[in-house]
Amino acid sequence: MSLIQPSVVLDVHALSGAYFAPISLQLAAGEVVCLFGVSGSGKSQFLRAVVDLELHQGAVFLHGVEQQQMAAPSWRRKVAYLPAESGWWATRVGEHFATPPSADELASLGLDEAILTREVDGISSGERQRLGLLRLLVQRPQVILLDEPSANLDPESTLKMEQVVCAYVRETQAAAVWVSHDPLQRARIADRSMDMPLRESEVLV
Q1: What are the pLDDT digits (tens) for 69-122?
Q2: pLDDT computed for residue 200 by the predictor
Q3: For the chain, how far is it from start to end, CA to CA, in angstroms?
Q4: pLDDT category, 2, cuts 50, 70, 90?
């Protein structure tokens, strides 16, 4: 068992992989941590290891339960990962939702109900990112791992996404890790920011 305080949602112990240095991190309930760093430092690989999609060493605990003690599908519903490009497998947008998002949920991200009837190939990358977030939140995850989710968004849509994520985290007492290269964004949303450490072989001397 992980020896953590009751308010800690996610506890990462010396997690390391082929492309990122060991990281230890605790996420408290209601907290947003922004992760940044140079390209190639392994930010995406770290998120994938936390969600158990990447080979890794170390341990990750969710409310004191170790990752490997939980079936992978259950873990990934509770610790949800939003990649830079979400997967799409059906023709129309609405087919990707077991329960369609409400008009209010869509509007909170600057979308309207008509988008659910459109073909995936006909929507923009920014619309896909916002819809991917809605698909993730419908699972009611306890931890959200976001890999530059606003990279393809205009400033107004970026602010809407930030508001939706922060409101969800606060209201549900979940926790989030948000990869962001934008210092202004980090100043707006982060309770803490963390610079991704380089592996020893990458450190310049």
Answers
A1: 999 999 999 999 999 888 889 999 999 988 889 999 999 999 999 999 999 999
A2: 59
A3: 39
A4: very low
For tokens 């087919």, name the residue.
95
pTM to 2 decimal places: 0.90
C-alpha distances (whole Å) from 140 to each of 41, 80, 148, 166 are 30, 9, 20, 14
Residue 178 scores a pLDDT above 90:
yes
**Strands 175-179 and 8-17, how do they pair?**
unpaired
Beta strands in the chain (DSSP E): 8-17, 20-28, 31-36, 57-62, 65-66, 79-82, 143-147, 175-179, 192-195
Helices 155-172 and 125-137, axial angle in degrees (round to 10): 10
CA distance 27 to 198: 21
Buried b (16+ CB within 10 A) or exposed e, 27-51: bbbbbbbbbbbeeebbbbbbbbbbb
CA atoms within 13 A on the CB side of 74: 8
Average pLDDT over residues 141-169: 96
Q: What gap in Å lies between CA 150 and CA 142, rounded to an integer?
A: 21
Q: How far is CA 31 from the centre of its chain?
A: 13
Query: 16: helix, coil or strand?
Result: strand
8-198: CATH, from 3.40.50.1000, 3.40.50.300, 3.40.50.1580, 3.40.50.970: 3.40.50.300
